[in-house]
Amino acid sequence: MKYRVAVVAVAWLLAGCTGQSEGFGHLLALASSDDVEAQITLAHAYADPAGFPGRGPTQPNGREAAKWCYIAMAKHPLVADKPCADVLTTLSPQDRAWGLGEASDWMVGQNADVVD
Q1: Is residue 115 assigned to a domain?
Q2: Among 26, 33, 59, 104, fewest CB within 10 Å belongs to which?
């Protein structure tokens, strides 16, 4: 799994994803269309933008990181549980709570349950 996340991250970096550029938008579109690797990569990018210099969010956003972790874990628990648990442990309880609420709202339209 780490290898697949790394491949998505490298592809994203090579695509020249700056801020909300076309590359970042493409990653967001993949995540929104149920691509678990993109969801996990997006969570990592929001949690630690330093790992994606000049290629994504410029400031950490624990709320968005938590949201994408919970979405990935709800739909793909066997793939996402470990990498997302690693991200979630770095986030504040407030960010995790907000992310869970946002993920739940997002998933309502997807007809899936979010796990806590």
Answers
A1: no
A2: 59
In the chain, how many domains are there? Answer: 1
19 φ/ψ sector (left φ>0, alpha ψ -120 to 50, else beta): left
Q: Over 50: is that where the pLDDT of 16 sits?
A: no
Residue type, 66: A
pLDDT digits (tens, 9 = 90+) for 79-99: 889 999 999 999 999 999 999
| Segment 6-32 mean pLDDT | 60
**What pTM does this model have?**
0.73
Which amino acid belongs to residue 100? L
Query: What are the φ/ψ torsions at residue 66 (nearest 5 degrees)?
Result: -65, -45
Contact 43, 28 (CB under 8 A): no
Domain carrying residue 60 = 2-108
User: Is residue 114 domain-resident?
Assistant: no
